[in-house]
Fold this sequence. Notes:
Rossmann fold; 2 domains
Amino acid sequence: MPTMKAARLFGPRDLRLMEVPLPELRPHDVLCRVVRSGICGTDYAIYSGQSSFAEKGLIRYPMTPGHEWSGTVAEVGPAVEGFRPGDRVVGDTGVSCGICEQCLVGRYDLCPEGRAVGTINAWDGAYAEYIVMPERHLYPLPEAVTFDHGAMVEPAATALHAVRRAGVGPGETVLVTGTGPIGIMAAAWARLSGAAQVLIAGRKPAKLELAQALGADVGINTCDGSLSDAVRRSVGKRGVDRVVEASGSAELLLQSLDAVRAGGTVATVAFYEGQFAPLDPDRLVLNGITLRGVAGSLGMYRPVLDLMAAGRFDPTPLITGRYPFEQVLRALADMEAASETRVKLMLEMPPA
């Protein structure tokens, strides 16, 4: 039986690089050889056991992590029509049933039978030489878009989805909290969406500088005092029109509610790994503030790929570390180590 190398997670901090059987294809499936695989903060939280998903029993071991990837088609099932071997591709972060009511109206992200790639109820992910995906969950990678860029499409699409859900429009003021990949890219998307002023808040000066180089107007170091006061010094006492909360910090989420204007919107695109208080619902009600949760990247892959292909968005500066696949454990250790500059770490798969 043909085999491949895969990093299989058997429990918290029990990741094993091993030979496993090559995945079998159903009629509409596509076997893809992984070329790049990004390491996400969620990947690390699941690996370390610190994720609320693991605590709630949503992670089923053993599983193969990895949901940010790009690659080439190696083989197609007999019913596949849109792809052929050699095509360059990227894939969705979830696999749906394709036939339920939610799937049929285009909300495949809400499919009750859905499985997340490499995370919740995992469809085995891209910490492996190969990944199988149904044809309906694959997208062609344009020639002008590199494999590096392709592996960044998922976080870029999630960031764009958050900006869209926040309702960012021309001439508005926007605050992004968090300077990870999604936060930095959300600031860039807010600029491309026509925002008049984009602020980004975080703790790491180097990351704030990177965010400003990619589109933010003002960097706010949250170690230097009140976020609300810093925001109002930049935009005036009314506050910002929109907030994208990408830090996963309960404190920053609560502070963002003080920084947004009456009638504004806060979109949260982070996991908070538990419950917290105090959240004042009366403030939301009396000030007409909209609070929206954002998960995934529904419908955003194609616009992100088109913008990358057109040269309008280049995420390359966010890649701050590269590792051969065999050093995946070292990469995860470096995710854990404190770093002032780490943004996105990338696994480079061995050539075919």
